[in-house]
From TrEMBL:
The keyword Transmembrane applies. It holds the Pfam family GGDEF. This is Cyclic di-GMP phosphodiesterase Gmr. The keyword Hydrolase applies. Residues 489-737 form the EAL domain. InterPro entries: Biofilm_reg_signaling, CHASE_dom, EAL_dom, EAL_sf, GGDEF_dom, Nucleotide_cyclase, Rev_trsase/Diguanyl_cyclase. The chain crosses the membrane at residues 253-276.
Length: 737
């Protein structure tokens, strides 16, 4: 019996030992299961972070190659690329920019980030090293994270761009730090885990904590921490995590084994229990194997989907690289490539550049959406009407190009242009609205006019602008005279900019005579370029075109006031000075405030300043310009209407203008001052007097004209008969005389 007891006790001990061993295995398995689950979560985060960034980088690869081939790309092309890149994958990108050398020259989205254009990032300490490292090594790098110039924190990918083997610049892709953290699942994992995201800076060989929910008081054992490294080019992110409650093997199964083992050891049923436990463990392992297999298949599907999307994106980027999205015509880049191709192979052809006349009016009156429909309509017309073998392109807002390879004969080119004009005239109804659509056309022929695509397009553009300048709705062929005229204009623009920057202007003062008393009433200030005989009638128009008329006009005001103060200090009897003002100055928001500031700061009597305007002030923004003129009058200044009798002159609009004088142009005087037409001149002067305006007659050249004008009732006269424009010191002498 004792032996049986010992055997039973031995069996008991054996069963207990078996179940203790089994419980230890379960403890270890459960702990390993928790660790494996954490590894899978970290692996998913690694995949999500890499995928979020990889989508965008692959999308940028095509444009990198495009820039290398076309280093003169413009902001519009870059915006098209940026918009497409934004649409690839998650919305984790904040902005994308192109740095020419180390300076931002292109950016998207443009409106939100245009203030950064022109900023040299090599001068920003936080980004300087990475910028120069990318430039020096020509390696794509990942920077994570950095403090951004525009505020906040982000991950930055820098992709060097080369042209003909030389460094050109770099594409900078800024990823939103918070969205990367959120979309990757780091925040979700932190609900049950302590998570730390550490950046390994390969360039500076240092670690820094990117994100963590671990407080400084929590103690962590190294063997409890699991981690995964995320390799991103020359940088590395490491995710470290461990359960907030620590890893534990005490699962429900663990407690069941302990209880069951105790029970079975008591009733000697260890064999049955051992079989059941073994079967249960086999089923659990099979389930885990099935889940692992399902997950693997899911990952394979995700990978296949990602590859399909990348291939689709690459095809779409290739399409965008050569197509205009609005009209579906080929774009300017494709136009340049095609012309270059034919120049290299066929050696001859013609380029027809078409610019829609007054297209801005369509946008302003019917809206940009309708304007887009007009452009689509015109694009379809070109596709259907141009000769076989020719290609149509949209190269700008309202500009199209027709390329006719191997065609240089005038007859064939004229036939194509005539067809375009006729089509635009006949097919001008869009959405039941009839439009008056005309175009100015320029033609250039290669290799006669040019031997490169850029040059032939430029010369077609010059011819087009020559056609537009001479009345629009016509076609001009490029000629060397146009180029000489353009060179002259470019040189004049350069001289004007130099004169503005270095103060190379001067004012002459022409007396305006009181007709009845034959004494000086006031002076008209007339601008001249120092050391140049060029007439203001020539350079003022150019200054208006290139935007220099405002600084020039401000200089005239300041100089006239300065001269009046100088005459006052010298003790001379002051006469008012009339200053010519461009409509572009009147349209400036701060022009009235500028005049007010000059009067107040100088202390000059505002009645000594008279503003001379022309009727073109009513051509655009009439109501706003009239309000500005009334504000100028309220400052105490006089206002005169200059060049009356030219252009669109009409007595009807005089009632709208707050003027006190009307200056009759020399052409009116020459036409009507003679005795045969004297009644017409008297009638004009009489009407002006009836409207309470004083009348100044310009261009008086002899005593006979003066005497006749005096009889006809003019109030003031001005012209070479009395005096040419004078230097300031000569004007003083003339006044005294």
């Amino acid at each position: 019996m004792k032996n049986n007891y010992l055997k039973a006790f031995g069996v008991f001990l054996l069963v207990v030992a078996i179940f203790l061993f089994t419980s230890a295995l379960e403890y270890t398995r459960e702990k390993e299961h928790q660790e494996q689950k954490l590894k899978e979560s970290l692996s998913d985060i690694e995949d999500d972070i890499q995928t979020s960034i990889a989508y965008k980088i692959v999308a940028a690869s095509g444009f990198k190659d495009y820039i290398g081939r076309n280093p003169t790309f413009d902001q519009e092309e870059f915006s098209d690329f940026g918009e497409e890149t934004y649409g690839v994958g998650d919305d984790v990108m904040r902005n994308i920019s192109f740095l020419t050398d180390t300076t931002i020259t292109h950016t998207y989205p443009y409106e939100e980030n245009k203030s950064g254009i022109g900023r040299d990032l090599a001068e920003i300490e936080a980004q300087k090293d990475w910028i120069l490292y990318t430039k020096r090594t020509k390696e794509t790098i990942f920077t994570a994270p950095v403090e951004l110039v525009e505020g906040g924190t982000g991950f930055i990918v820098r992709i060097p761009v080369e042209s003909d083997g030389d460094y050109l610049g770099q594409i900078s892709m800024v990823f939103d730090y918070n969205k990367i953290i959120e979309y990757s699942g780091v925040k979700a994992l932190s609900e049950d885990m302590y998570v730390t995201l550490v950046s390994k800076d390969g360039f500076k060989a240092s670690d820094s904590v990117v994100w963590s929910n671990l407080d400084s008081e929590t103690q962590v054992e190294d063997d409890e921490v699991d981690s995964v490294d995320i390799e991103l080019y020359d940088s590395k992110l490491t995710i470290r995590a461990f359960p907030k409650e620590g890893f534990s093997g005490k699962s429900s199964l663990f407690y069941i084994i302990i209880a069951t083992g105790a029970l079975i050891s008591s009733v000697s049923g260890f064999v049955s229990y051992e079989l059941l436990s073994t079967n249960e463990m086999l089923r659990q392992n099979q389930k885990q194997l099935g889940e692992a297999q399902t997950k693997l298949m899911s990952k394979n599907e995700d990978l296949k989907e990602m590859v399909d999307k990348l291939e689709s994106s690459e095809e779409h980027i290739s399409f965008l690289a050569e197509r205009d999205l609005l009209t579906n015509l080929f774009n300017r880049r494709k136009c340049s490539e095609d012309i270059s191709y034919h120049i290299e192979r066929d050696g001859k052809g013609s380029v027809i550049l078409i610019d829609i006349d007054n297209f801005k009016n369509i946008n302003d009156t019917l809206g940009h959406s309708y304007g887009d429909k007009v452009l689509k309509h015109l694009g379809n017309l070109l596709l259907s009407k141009i000769p076989h073998g020719s290609t149509a392109y949209r190269v700008g807002g309202d500009e199209f190009v027709v390329h006719m390879p191997s065609v240089i004969e005038y007859k064939e080119i004229k036939s194509c242009v005539d067809t375009v004009f006729k089509s635009f005239k006949m097919h001008n109804s869009i959405e039941s609205i009839k439009n008056h659509i005309t175009a100015s056309v320029g033609v250039a022929i290669y290799p006669i006019d040019a031997i490169t695509s850029e040059e032939v397009i430029m010369k077609a553009d010059i011819a087009m602008y020559d056609a537009k300048k001479l009345g629009k709705n016509r076609c001009h062929y490029f000629s060397d005279d146009m180029m000489r005229s353009l060179d002259w204009k470019v040189n004049l623009e350069s001289d004007l900019r130099d004169a503005v920057e270095n103060g190379k202007f001067k004012l002459l003062y022409q007396p305006v005579i009181d007709a009845g008393e034959k004494r000086i009433a006031y002076f008209e200030a007339l601008i001249r370029m120092a050391n140049s005989d060029l007439s203001p009638a020539v350079f003022i128009g150019v200054a208006e075109e290139i935007g220099l008329i405002v600084p020039i006009g401000e200089w005239v005001v300041k100089e006239a006031i300065r001269q009046l103060l100088e005459w006052k200090e010298e003790g001379h009897d002051l006469k008012p000075v009339a200053i010519n003002v461009s409509p572009l100055q009147i349209r400036q928001e701060n022009f009235v405030e500028f005049l007010k500031e000059q009067i107040e700061s100088s202390g000059i009597d505002p009645s000594l300043i008279e503003i001379e305007i022309t009727e073109t002030v009513l051509m655009e923004n009439r109501e706003e310009n009239i309000r500005s003129l009334k504000a100028i009058r309220d400052l105490g200044m006089g206002i005169a209407l200059d060049d009356f009798g030219t252009g669109y002159s009409s007595l009807s609009y005089l009632a709208y203008l707050p003027v006190t004088k009307v200056k009759l142009d020399k052409s009116i005087k020459d036409r009507f001052v003679n005795f045969e037409e004297a009644q017409v001149m008297e009638g004009i002067i009489s009407i002006c007097h009836g409207l309470k305006f004083k009348v100044v007659t310009e261009g008086v050249e002899d005593q006979e004209e003066y005497s006749q004008l005096l009889v006809q009732g003019t109030d003031y006269v001005q012209g070479y008969f009395f005096s040419k424009p004078l230097l300031p010191e000569d004007a003083v002498s003339f006044s005294i005389r």
